[in-house]
Write a structure and sequence with these properties.
With 343 residues, this protein is α/β, with parallel strands linked by helices. Helices cover 50% and strands 14% of the residues.
């Protein structure tokens, strides 16, 4: 029988978000407001026209608009505003911890200094922790459509911030840009003490997931949907307890799945994969993290027990230290034991 109270249960569930591109949280209203104050002309006349353009049939359709939107971001205050707007929205969804991607090359290639981007985001993170009680970590993403030398140059720019960056990731156009292209820079990042993750198996084949594991030595896989096409790989991901940061509404919008009732999340859980639910680029894909939870609740009939597992996975798959993970799990357990009612 469907659980009529599942939306309320999801709303109060303490959770972490592990797959969120901060540039993908730029709402059209903010794009126009920041564009106006920076005198940057957008290729759209109105907020409605922007939203109407958000009809994608593949990843690249989205990326073209996402990179265009990011052009309005020029100053430290812009990156602060972008960051704090996301954290406010995340706090409303009871996100207790967020590990957020940023794409420095999208900005440094336009002449915006790395420090401007990082300072604005780090200031938003500090305010979110202080005022909203949301902890966070920053993940520097390399753009895979660019070459490895450019990724190395970005890692060098990040050097003064390396103690404030938790890890590196790999995003942008997947097919034709396999993880092997970035083996050297991931090795260097790992030696610098950074955590490692990579987008793999969103549009790319299972071979890219193997490469992310074997050549990049990642601890998490971002998306990972297509890993399910390979039973050996699936069993390996289960055995190694690798966290998959799954993004249901993104998958729907980018036609990775054609209907939420066909989304592989339920199968992932049934197979014992350590899946989590995330929003990816919420301003572009029609929803923040709780919208994603609700979409799979209604599309796949996931239960409270499934959502408790997903929330648990989000904390244990995070890069928080053991004490912080325990604290978050205790809050999660208290919520579940209290019958899913916020205390
Ligand atoms: N996939 C790859 N690159 C991205 C994405 C995504 O979903 N969002 C922002 N950059
Ligand atoms: Zn992503």
């Amino acid at each position: 029988m469907p659980d009529a109270t599942i939306d309320a249960f999801i709303a109060g569930l303490p959770k972490a978000e592990l797959h969120l591109h901060i540039e993908g949280s730029l709402e059209p209203e903010a794009m126009f407001a920041i564009g106006k104050r920076n005198k940057v002309t957008l290729p759209f006349k109105s907020v409605d026209e922007v939203r109407a353009a958000y009809a994608f049939s593949r990843l690249q359709d989205f990326l073209d608009i996402y990179y265009a939107g990011a052009q309005v971001l020029l100053h430290e205050q812009d990156f602060f505003d972008l960051g704090i707007a996301y954290f406010r929205r995340a706090a409303a969804d009871n996100v207790r911890h967020a590990e957020i991607f940023f794409d420095p090359q999208t900005h440094t290639d336009r002449g915006v200094p790395f420090a401007v981007v990082a300072d604005g985001l780090l200031r938003a993170m500090a305010v979110a922790e202080r005022d909203l009680g949301v902890s966070s970590k920053l993940i520097l993403c390399f753009l895979r459509h660019l070459d490895e030398d450019a990724a190395f140059a970005t890692l060098r720019m990040a050097e003064p911030y390396v103690d404030r960056i938790a890890g590196v990731g790999l995003d942008s156009s997947e097919v034709g840009h396999p993880p092997s292209k970035f083996a050297g820079v991931f090795k260097a990042a790992g030696e610098r003490g950074l955590h490692l993750t990579a987008h793999a198996g969103e549009e790319g084949p299972p071979a890219y997931v193997y490469e992310a594991l074997d050549l990049l030595k990642v601890g998490r896989i971002d998306h990972g949907n297509r890993a399910l096409e390979d039973d050996v790989l699936t069993r390996r991901l289960v055995a190694e307890g690798k966290t998959l940061t799954v993004c249901p509404l993104s998958n729907l919008k980018l036609c990775v799945v054609h209907d939420m009732v066909q989304h592989p999340l339920k199968r992932m859980l049934d197979l014992g994969l350590k899946a989590t639910i995330n929003s990816d680029d919420p301003a572009y894909f029609g929803g923040y993290v709780n919208d994603n939870f609700r979409a799979v609740a209604h599309g796949l009939g996931l239960t409270r027990a499934d959502f408790a597992t997903l929330a648990r996975n989000s904390f244990t798959g995070s890069w928080l230290g053991a004490a912080e993970i325990s604290k978050n799990l205790a809050a999660l357990d208290a919520y579940i034991e209290g019958g899913g009612v916020s205390g």
